[in-house]
């Protein structure tokens, strides 16, 4: 009985996430994912997936740090975000302040959800 209940709850959680996540194609090789995550400002967290021939790049498009510091004046914020991103297994583009990771297609969903969680955490730094 307990095992059946946990399996049912796992399905319900998966169904909820699927129902509250929207994915659209913005061009021939890029998807925009509106996740169910909400950042510190009450805004929906977005993730972009750019398909290449041998991998997919899962990215925030540089948007979380732009949102927190549009004029790029807070070096400490950028350094802290870089440390958090790298410590979480993501890459950090110092020129565009983009957080990203390159993954196989089979790992896109996991990378997107984890990146959304990472953006939520970083949003509280601002």
Describe this structure in words.
The protein is of the alpha+beta class and 126 residues long. 42% of the residues lie in helices and 27% in strands. It is built from four helices and six strands, in the order αββββααββα. Strands 1-2-3-4-6-5 form a six-stranded antiparallel beta sheet. The longest helix has 18 residues, at 2-19. The N and C termini lie far apart (46 Å). The mean pLDDT is 95.
Quick structural overview:
The chain is globular.
**Major beta sheet, specifics?**
6 strands, antiparallel
Widest sheet: strand ordering:
1-2-3-4-6-5
Low-confidence stretches: none
C-alpha Rg (nearest Å)? 16 Å
Summarize the topology:
Blueprint: H1 2-19, E1 22-25, E2 30-38, E3 44-51, E4 56-59, H2 63-68, H3 75-87, E5 91-93, E6 98-103, H4 108-123
Antiparallel strand pairs: 1-2, 2-3, 3-4, 4-6, 5-6
List the main descriptive attributes of the protein structure presented here:
126 residues, alpha+beta, 6-stranded antiparallel sheet, 27% strand, single chain, 4 helices, 6 strands
